Amino acid sequence: MDIAQAKRKENIAEYILYLWQLEDLLRALQFSPEAIYSQLVAPRQVEEEQKHIYLLWYMDIVNLLRKEGKEESGHLEHTLHLIGDMHNLHLQLMQNPVGEHYRKTFAQLAPQLPQLRAMVKKENISDTELAFRALYAAMLYRIKGDAKRAEAIKDTIELVSPVVGELAAMYGKVERGEVDLFKDM
Predict the structure, then answer these.
(1) CB proximity list for 143: less than 8 A, separation 6 or greater
(2) 28, pLDDT greater than 70
(3) Strand spans (E) along 118-165
(4) How far is CA 175 from the centre of its chain?
(5) Rounded Cα gap, residues 54 and 7, in angstroms
(6) CA 70 to CA 85: how far, in whole Å?
(7) Which of 10, 103, 146, 179 has the largest count of CB atoms under 10 Å?
(8) How many CB atoms lie under 10 A from the CB of residue 168?
(9) How far from 36 is each of 2, 140, 177, CA to CA, in Å?
C-alpha cells in the first residue's frame, strides 16, 4: 500500500509494474488471507493497527481480481486503464511539437515492435501495452532466473525501457500541470 502510493506519485510505469507483480504474488499465495498476512504483512515493522490496514488493502486487490475474473491470469482493469491513458499520451506526443524528443526515442523501438508483438503473443494491444508486457516479461525472467530468455530480449528491453521511462516522466509532468501538450500548436 505504502509502496504503491509512493510509486504512483513518483513513476506511473513503476506503479503499474509493481501492481502486476503484486497480482502474481497474491495468486501464488492462493489469495489466502493467512498466507498474505504471514508473507506480506507480518514482516513489516509497523504497529498492529497498521498491519490490519495492510491486510485489508491486499484483500481488496484479491477481491478485485476475483470480481474481474482474473484469479488465474490477467491484469486489473485499473492498470489497463492507466496504460490506456499513457497510450493516449503516446499518441499526442507522436503528433504534437512537445513530443519531439519522445518521437526520436520511440523511433528506435518501432522496428522491433513486430518481433516483440510475436514474442508477447498479443496482437490486439497498443504499442504502449506491448512495451509494458515486454518489460514485465523481462522482469519475470530475471526473477525466475531464466537467463536464456532474459538475454534473448535484452536488446529489445534496452529500447523499450527508455520509451516507457520517457513516457512515464511526461505522464507525471502532464498530470502535475508542468507540461502543456498543446503548446506551440
Answers:
(1) none
(2) yes
(3) none
(4) 17
(5) 16
(6) 21
(7) 179
(8) 19
(9) 16, 20, 38
Q: What nine digits make up the cell of 75?
A: 491484469
All 3 cell numbers of residue 146? 531464466
- pLDDT for 88 equals 98
- Report the SS3 class of residue 184: coil
Alpha carbon of residue 133 to chain centroid: 8
- The three state secondary structure string of 77-93 is HHHHHHHHHHHHHHHHH
Which are the contacts of 54, defined by CB distance < 8 A and separation ≥ 6?
1, 40, 41, 44, 46
- Amino acid residing at 124: N
**C-alpha cell of 13?**
510505469
163, 123 contact by CB (below 8 A): no
Neighbours of 112 (CB within 10 A): 17
- Cell digits of residue 121: 503473443
